[in-house]
Write a structure and sequence with these properties.
single chain; alpha/beta; TIM Barrel; Malate Synthase G, Chain: A, Domain 4; eight-stranded parallel β-barrel; five-stranded antiparallel sheet; 18% strand
């Protein structure tokens, strides 16, 4: 039982009080009393409205369920369905043309397309790695992965594989920075004369791509190039084991990689109480103050990891040039749904966690706003806001941050909002959602997994859905992805805000990523999510090949490619002539993914990790992947494609598979043969109670079961 501390009418866990008053507030100019009084005012003024928005979600869902039930044995009438959604206020009029008014947006968002990382803020090592992933070695990325078709042979450095890496890097340099009459593969000397880069005394075909150098201009330590806004550094060192065997002394090719990184307080973490929230907030504070460190053991040695410092160059005109070495950091708050026991209101009810995140993460970011050379050079705070349903909920988020700024004395619109287009009610009303945040929006994106989970839940009563692989091939997904970009461009996001695309979920499959993920910049997206710093470096190659702003110009001239009708094309199974083996395979695949993720979430508090799938391929899993799998099985259960007994049999069978996959983890608690652990019960809840979960979200079940486990351990 927590002995809470009363603060302006709020009942607060002492661990949160200690963090706020002892660490977060000192240095901001905000007094303890002013903070808690403002927090209480937010809870009183906005709490009921928050609940009303959630009630609206449920009311609309009930009406949609009833419509589908009434029309279940009839051919789907698309026009009647659309008219019905308009009648109940789900599908809103689009409104007149407008452009966003967001200002003071940092160049990493507004001007330079590139990769974006998403990492759990509760893991300090991952957070530091992501922040420092602004630059990465192309040599390392190509050598240590399957990017060129295979990984290096076991043992020490393989000269043959290394030679292929060097050759591949030279091809990239020829493509991005061609030399007049020479290939980089044949170059012997890079030097600077009269403000120009010369390679064997020959100039670049585009001399303006030379951005600077370090060291002696006659024999630079490094040469800085730039293409499509992204920098590339050629590192020269004839004492290096690579440079010593290179005719030009080129030891490495370093790419500007993760331009931005989302420090995630939501889907990739397991924060269920004050202890967890303080860990998350504490790491965010360290990033914003610039003093976060983590002791890391690697290769038998221990060292301290900290944020990288800026690097100085000499510009072509001889002036000083300093480049940031850290990704621009955004913070993802939780959505409007969940509450958290860290703070209770005057009636003893848990406060909405989204309000808590809004105030506390912005308060923490004030440390960055007050220091030179920090995260934002334009004095902005970037908050990604997930799981909003339609423009009313976006407008509520805007009012929340209005209030935060008033409490903290910040200029209006200091806080910029990222709108995640991952719920259908947002997708079909995207233009109005952007309008609701037109002075704050700095980011929109698409996320296939959450978006599919919401699609299944919203249309649960319409019938059984296709198998997951076939859902991706239906027309609605293309309409959703294209319309997001088209509307973003119509609303003036080009040059002011990001248009983003989703995650590459297979961190060990870089060759496939290089083949496929180029489609994201080709789609007109400024950024796309990657699962690791190495993936960011390799994905950066795509932004050198594709001029995203040129693509966006063509798209703007061509008009909209997709409309609401396409998005409302529900991806139901058409024929449903599945064999028993196909049904069993689909259910077992879903069950294995759910169990592999949930067992780590519940037992270890790990919200995102690389989880082996049913074929032992490592996939990045978070709550979005769990949501689609749980909702898919719940849908098939509801429509009698499978029975509860069959699903339970699949869960038990896959529990044994997951146990095997984790057999080498000494901290792992097996689920089989008892199947009576809290983690296994949580997975069962997600499936068997999936139809009645709010919007099909996994959070209510996961939070309750994690708290149950922590309570059983006396935590």
């Amino acid at each position: 039982m927590v002995n809470r501390i009363e603060k302006s009418g709020l009942q607060v866990d002492p661990r949160l009080v200690d963090f706020i008053e002892g660490q977060a507030l000192p240095g901001t100019g905000i007094s303890d009393d002013a903070f808690w009084a403002g927090f209480d005012r937010m809870v009183q003024d906005l709490g009921q409205e928050n609940q009303a928005l959630l009630d609206t979600r449920e009311a609309l869902q009930s009406k949609i369920d009833a419509w589908h039930i009434a029309h279940r044995d009839q051919p789907h009438d698309h026009e009647a369905y659309t008219a019905f959604l308009q009648e109940i206020g789900y599908l809103l009029p689009e409104g007149d043309a407008f452009e966003i008014e967001t200002d003071n947006v940092d160049p990493e968002i507004a001007q330079v397309p590139g990769p974006q990382l998403v990492v759990p803020i509760t893991n300090a090592r991952y957070a530091l790695n992501a922040a420092n992933a602004r630059w990465g070695s192309l040599y390392d990325g190509l050598y240590g992965t399957d990017a060129m078709g295979s990984t290096p042979p076991a043992g020490g450095y393989n000269k043959g594989h290394g030679a292929r890496v060097v050759a591949r890097a030279r091809v990239f340099l020829d493509e991005a920075f061609p030399i007049e009459g020479l290939s980089h593969a044949d170059a012997r000397r890079y030097h600077v004369r009269d403000g120009a880069l010369l390679v064997d005394d020959l100039p670049l075909m585009q001399p303006e791509k030379f951005a600077g150098y370090r060291g002696n201009p006659k024999a630079p330590d490094a040469v800085l190039l730039v293409n499509h806004g992204l920098h590339v550094e050629l590192v020269f060192d004839r004492a290096h084991f690579i440079g010593s065997h290179d005719q030009a002394g080129l030891a490495d090719v370093r790419l500007e990689s993760a331009m931005s990184a989302i420090m995630d307080c939501e889907d990739s973490v397991a924060c269920v109480d004050a202890e967890d929230k303080v860990q998350a907030y504490g790491n965010w504070l360290g990033l914003m103050k610039g003093d976060l460190t983590e002791e890391v053991a690697k290769g038998g040695q221990s060292f301290t990891r900290r944020l990288n410092t800026d690097v100085a160059y000499v510009a072509p005109d001889g002036s000083d040039l300093t480049l940031k070495t850290r990704a621009l950091m955004l913070v993802r708050n939780v959505g409007h749904l969940m509450t958290n026991p860290a703070v209770l209101d005057a009636d003893g009810k848990e406060v909405f966690e989204g309000l808590m995140d809004a105030l506390i993460t912005t308060t923490i970011a004030m440390h960055d706003l007050q220091r030179a050379g920090g995260n934002s050079v334009h004095g902005s705070v970037y908050v990604v806001k997930p799981k909003m349903h339609g423009p009313e909920e976006v407008a509520f988020a805007v009012r929340s941050f209005d209030m935060v700024e008033d409490i903290l004395g910040l200029p209006r619109n200091t806080v910029k909002i990222g709108i995640m287009d991952e719920e259908r009610r947002t997708s079909v009303n995207l233009k109005q959602c952007i309008r609701a945040a037109k002075s704050r929006v700095a980011f929109i994106n698409t996320g296939f997994l959450d978006r599919t989970g919401d699609e299944i839940h919203t249309s649960m009563e319409a019938g059984p859905f296709s198998r997951k692989d076939f859902i991706k091939r239906k027309g609605w997904i293309g309409a959703y992805e294209n319309r997001n970009v088209d509307i973003g461009l119509e609303c003036g996001l080009q040059g002011r805000a990001q248009i983003g695309k989703g995650m590459w979920a297979m961190p060990d499959m870089m060759n496939a990523m290089l083949e496929q993920k180029i489609e994201h910049p080709k789609s007109g997206a400024n950024c796309a999510w990657v699962p690791s710093p190495t993936a960011a470096t390799l994905h950066a190659l795509h932004y050198h090949k594709v001029n995203v702003f040129a693509v966006q110009d063509k798209l703007r001239a061509g008009g909209r490619r997709a409309h609401v009708d396409g998005i409302l094309d529900i991806p139901l199974a058409t024929f449903r002539k599945w064999t028993p083996a196909q049904i069993a395979n689909e259910v077992e695949n879903n069950a294995q993914g759910i169990l592999g993720y949930v067992v780590r979430w519940i037992d270890h508090g790990v919200g995102c990790s690389k989880v082996p799938d049913i074929h032992d391929v490592g996939l990045m899993e978070d709550r979005a992947t769990c949501r689609i799998s749980a909702q898919h099985v719940a849908n098939w259960l509801h429509h009698d494609i499978v029975t509860e007994a069959q699903v339970m049999q699949a869960l038990q069978k896959m529990a044994a598979v997951v146990d095997r996959q984790n057999a080498n983890d000494p901290t792992y608690t097996p689920m089989a043969p008892g199947f009576d652990g809290i983690a296994f019960q949580a997975a069962c809840d997600l499936v068997f109670k999936g139809r009645v979960q709010p919007s099909g979200y996994t959070e209510p079940v996961l939070h309750a079961r994690r708290l149950e486990l922590k309570s059983s351990l006396g935590a």
